[in-house]
Amino acid sequence: MLLDFGGVLTTPVRTSFEGFARDEGIEPEALWGLMRDIARTDDDPFTLVETGAIDQSEFDVRLAARFNDRLGTEIVPDNLKVRLFSRVGPDDAMIGAVRTAREKGVPTGLISNSWGGSYGEGGYDRVMFDELFDVVVVSGEVGLRKPQPEIYLLACERIGAEPEECVFADDFEVNALGATAVGMLGIRHRTAKETIPQLEGFLGTTLR
Fold first, then answer.
1. pLDDT of residue 123
2. H or E element, residue 102
3. So what's the pLDDT on residue 25?
């Protein structure tokens, strides 16, 4: 059983971004739309930080510059990533499902596109990852990012399973589809109420 981190084991990331936008006097939809646009450009900071080409501090500087250039804002770069994620908290139901799976002997793994820095912004740290997962694959540490096929196959290799034996849940459809493309069952996560029954169906065991 493989899962994403932000937006799957946490409350929705987009909700936190919307709160950041309101703090900065920006229309949330304008910020979200701009972030989508930035992700489609050459040398976009998301790809660079997720693959480890730049660190979090450089990411903060580059993203703030893009925001200010396109939105006419005066957003300071200091701790920008942390501020974006400041309203993210744990999804206790999903965390509980992972704990239950591991207690039942189901191999568990994380595949995360990381924006650098620590993992504390969502109320977690690496110690919790070690408690929840047998395998942790973080984009910046392996030089790959979802939805590249190689990152899913690497997770399979590390967890000791074929893609067809794995299920993967992610809050971004493109990443769930990436898992499906290599042979996994890819689940687009929206809520624990929807996702946990799908995980249970694939695994043939209860997670609640």
1. 53
2. helix 92-103
3. 94
Q: At what angle do helices 173-181 and 149-159 cross, to 10 degrees?
A: 60
Distance CA 113, CA 57 (A): 17
Peptide bond into 12 cis (omega under 30): no
Give, in degrees to the nearest 5, the angle at Cα 163 between 157 and 168. Answer: 100
Quote the CA–CA distance of 189 and 170 in Å, as a whole number: 5
Residue 122 is predicted with a pLDDT of 52
Task: Kindly give, in sequence order, each residue whose CB lies less than 8 Å from that of residue 22, ignoring residues fewer than 6 positions away.
Answer: 28
Instruction: Answer whether 64's CB lies under 8 Å from 72's CB.
Output: no
**H/E run at residue 137:** strand 135-138
φ, ψ of residue 59 in degrees (nearest 5):
-60, -45
Give the DSSP H/E element, type plus range, for residue 124.
none
Give the tokens for residue 69: 């250039």
The string of pLDDT tens digits covering residues 38-68 is 987 878 999 999 999 999 999 999 999 999 9
Beta bridge partners of 6: none
Q: Which DSSP string corresponds to 140-191?
A: HHHT--TT-HHHHHHHHHHHT--GGG-EEEESSHHHHHHHHHTTSEEEE-S-
- Residues 6 or more apart whose CB falls under 8 angstroms from that of 131 comprise none
pTM of the shown model? 0.92
Give the residue carrying structure tokens 């809520």.
191
Could you tell me if 155 and 111 are in contact, meaning their C-beta atoms sit under 8 angstroms apart? yes
